[in-house]
Amino acid sequence: MREDNDVGLQTNPDASPEPGNGAGARNAAPVNVSVVDPADETAMRRWHAVFHAGLMAGLQDPPAWTLQESLVLHRAADSSMRREPFVAVDGNGDVVGAGEVQFPLRENLRLAIFEIGVPPEHRRRGVGSALYGHVVERARAEGRISLLTEVNVPDGTPHEEWPGVAFARILGFTLRNTELRRQLRLPVEPLHLRTLAGKAAQRASDYRLVSWSGPCPAEYAEQYAELKGRLSADAPLGDLDYEQEVWDVARLREAEDRTAAQGRTLFTTVAVAPDGTLAGHTQLAVPRHEPGRAYQWDTLVHAAHRGHRLGLALKVANTQALSEAHPEVTRVDTWNAVQNGPMVAVNVELGYRIMDACQEWQREL
Ligand SMILES: CC(C)(COP(=O)(O)OP(=O)(O)OC[C@H]1O[C@@H](n2cnc3c(N)ncnc32)[C@H](O)[C@@H]1OP(=O)(O)O)[C@@H](O)C(=O)NCCC(=O)NCCS
């Protein structure tokens, strides 16, 4: 789940084998799966290289945590999520596959969220199945009863032919939600931005736009935390079984600290209603370790304030603020559920173009 979302539930009645008992066993090479200690820099470096090579193969300009960002993610305090990296090592001692399993700690306590990556040269020998077996084992040990994963499919590729889709299907997962990743090239033509800002102002003029970079100002923190939690309830999640996240100021500050430690600068614009309440917000992250890129994170307009073109107003203002502060940024990635018409319309108007589909697959254990 990233910014917004779709459905496309497909069932696979005749395929739900246990891990290691069929799928991938045909040409199985012996591999050992073991947990990686985040404090071990050399091991994390090997983990990251293989994880990245597996997950991002075949994607255009793929978005991913850098090694430096991953190290922080696995080492920094996070009272909402526990993350465990793991690797598959073959008989020669080479890392041939890697994964990560996440255990939400505040809500979604039924869930284990995971990703598995096997570089193309090591595929179809049972490595993915062995890694998945580890996920199932860890999920069961933690009392989790539902598994959730993502598969990224390049635009224009028939989904049924994509390895991750075939793998998820054979393991008994069903497709619950599809988001599309779109990318915007920067800078956006200033005249185009001014035209869009003018169009939004026709209906959004009662609202004041406030932008900042870095942590949320104290005066807005409580309301802002509430808006952050609302995204998981309001963004369309298709048939995903995912509970609403509950955010308070402590969670917000922890997330901001972690993001800053990762070397990412946040650019946020909020819309303030005449009575002082926050009507909506949008947020961009600019990673120090990936110069030239930015990522669109949440955008949300409170239900009571929809229909005022605030989505457009917020995004135009935030894009302008980003380009002024970081003229070196040439592209922004965003994710939207395919059925999220209003958000997609805003992004298309801004000039975002489709890169790939991010499918969310889930199964009960
Ligand atoms: C999906 C992925 C992890 C599979 O890794 P792998 O080591 O090739 O997996 P296995 O060898 O254990 O394959 C298990 C079964 O999945 C199915 N499968 C895997 N890749 C397939 C493909 N390209 N076409 C058809 N079926 C495929 C097969 O049924 C296979 O069993 P078989 O080889 O006996 O026919 C790997 O392709 C990958 O890293 N993809 C990119 C990331 C991703 O999508 N991860 C999955 C979600 S976390």
Automatic annotation (TrEMBL):
Q: Cite the residue spans of the region called Disordered.
A: 1-29
Low complexity bias (residue ranges): 17-29
Q: Which residues form a coiled coil?
A: none
UniProt keyword Chaperone, yes or no:
no
| Presence of keyword Acyltransferase | yes
Question: What keywords would UniProt list here?
Answer: Acyltransferase, Transferase
| Pfam families, per database record | Acetyltransf_1
The N-acetyltransferase domain, residue ranges: 31-189
Task: Write out the GO MF terms.
Answer: acyltransferase activity, transferring groups other than amino-acyl groups
Q: What is this protein called?
A: Acetyltransferase (GNAT) family protein
Q: What is the organism field in this record? A: Actinopolymorpha singaporensis
